[in-house]
Amino acid sequence: MKAEIARIARREVKKAVAPLHEALRKQRQQVLALKRAMQAREVQVRGAAPAGPAVTDEDVKKARFSGRLIQKLRARLGLSRKEFGQLAGVSPFSVVGWEHDDFRPKGANRQALIALRKITARDAKKLLAENKTILSA
């Protein structure tokens, strides 16, 4: 008699749990689909061009530049003078002048240098590949 009651109870529990198993299976499929969609979006975002960092007027006023700082920035980004000038929107000769302290960057060039401080070498390479300057990104 006990065995029969246990068998019937198991059957009833199985009937009650079956819809829950089905709902769980569907939710797992939905989670998997969402994960795949998120991974696809991440790939799109990584492949997108980096946006140029925001430069405020306060940043421009506070910024200090010396030839040595500009050389270090260029070295950190791993760029030649030509590439650095292309990103900043100036000629390589301007970069040489800045690095040798012959003259100082002013106006938009100053903003470009501040923006270049805020990006990574990888972002710099992407901008160069797309033929963009830091301020046009």
Task: Describe, in short, the structure shown.
It contains seven helices and no strands.
Helix percentage range: over 70%
Radius of gyration, in Å, reads 30 Å
Oligomeric state of the chains in view: single chain
Structural class call reads: mainly alpha
End-to-end separation in angstroms reads 80 Å
Order of SSEs? HHHHHHH
Percent of sequence in beta strands: under 5%
CATH superfamily label of the largest domain: lambda repressor-like DNA-binding domains
For the record, the CATH class of the largest domain is: Mainly Alpha
- Biggest β-sheet description: none
In the CATH hierarchy, the third-tier topology of the largest domain is known as: 434 Repressor (Amino-terminal Domain)
Q: Give the overall shape.
A: rod-shaped
Strand segment count: 0
Number of domains: 2
List unreliable stretches of 5+ residues.
Answer: none
> What is the architecture of the largest domain at the second tier of CATH?
Orthogonal Bundle
List the total number of helices: 7
Notes on the structure:
By secondary structure, the chain is mainly α. The protein has two domains: 1-48; 57-129, Orthogonal Bundle (434 Repressor (Amino-terminal Domain)), CATH 1.10.260. It contains seven helices and no strands. The chain has helices spanning 2-47, 57-62, 67-77, 81-88, 92-99, 108-117, 121-129. Helix 3 crosses helix 5 and helix 4 (81-88) crosses helix 5.
